Amino acid sequence: MPPNAVNWLNSDNNTNFLNRKTLMTINPTMSIPGSQQEDEEIYLNQIRTIKFPNNPNGAEPRYLVSVKKPLIFTSSAHPKLAKEFLSYLIQPENLGAYIKGSKGRYFPIMSQLWEDPFWHDTKDPHISVASQQFTQYQTHLFENSINPAYSQVDSENIWTKAMQKVLIDGLSPTEATDIAIKLIKEIFARWKTTEA
User: Fold this and answer.
1) Model confidence pLDDT, tens digit, residues 59-70
2) What's residue 194's pLDDT?
3) Is the pLDDT of residue 6 over 80?
4) Do 91 and 118 share a domain, yes or no?
5) Amino acid 10: pLDDT
6) Same structural domain for residues 128 and 150?
7) Does residue 150 lie in a domain region?
8) Predicted TM-score of the model (pTM)
9) Residue that is last in its domain, among 141, 157, 182
10) Angle at the Cα of 11 (from 95 to 164), degrees rounded to 5?
11) Is residue 70 domain-shared with residue 117, that is, in the same domain?
């Protein structure tokens, strides 16, 4: 990893990978291959999507799944129209066309859409691999989908700050981890108080 990876923003993994400053990166939305589909040489021959390796104990990994949810704000100017649009969009034929039109960046949650050959074309070295991960292996929701406190942990970059304490401040990994865990426990305690 480049030393400045601890300071990366959301798209910096894409930028560093495409600028050949890093060899591999996690890319859950398939944005890297999606951005290269117009260049067949790069898309088919120069980059690859691969499954995660097995865990250190030899077990297959559980793949993290991010579920995107639409929102209609109560102060929206046209909530009825928004609901009508969402009712239209979630019809399998419409959602399937939208997802395929977005170059496979999102995997459908409707199992009938998985049957589309788009997701299983082994000539595509990216979409077919991602599809296998979601249909053939165990999956798990990102923690922030389970508990909102995790979103705060992410937005405050608790683990990035812990890595910086090791790399920049010279703390031991154990000391930095202890600090991070203490902060995370405080965040969860605050969320528990606001939910009560």
Assistant:
1) 998 888 877 788
2) 67
3) no
4) yes
5) 83
6) no
7) yes
8) 0.71
9) 141
10) 135
11) yes
pLDDT higher at 189 or 29: 189
Looking at this protein, which amino acid is placed at residue 122?
T
Enumerate the β-bridge partners of residue 140.
64
Same domain for 135 and 75, yes or no, is yes
Is 95 within 8 Å of 89 (Cβ atoms)? yes
Enumerate the H helices of 21-168 as residue ranges.
31-35, 40-41, 79-89, 92-101, 127-136, 143-146, 148-155, 158-167
137 in the same domain as 79: yes
Range of the domain at 188: 143-196
CA atoms of 99 and 108, how far apart (whole Å) = 7
Angle at 166 between CA 160 and CA 167, to 5 degrees: 85
Summarised one tens digit per residue, pLDDT across range 82-102 is 999 999 999 999 999 999 988
Q: Per the domain annotation, does 96 fall within a domain?
A: yes
CA distances 171 to 66, 72, 161, 165, 182, Å, are 33, 45, 11, 6, 15
Residue 126, classified by CB atoms within 10 Å of its CB into exposed (0-12), middle (13-18) or buried (19+), is buried
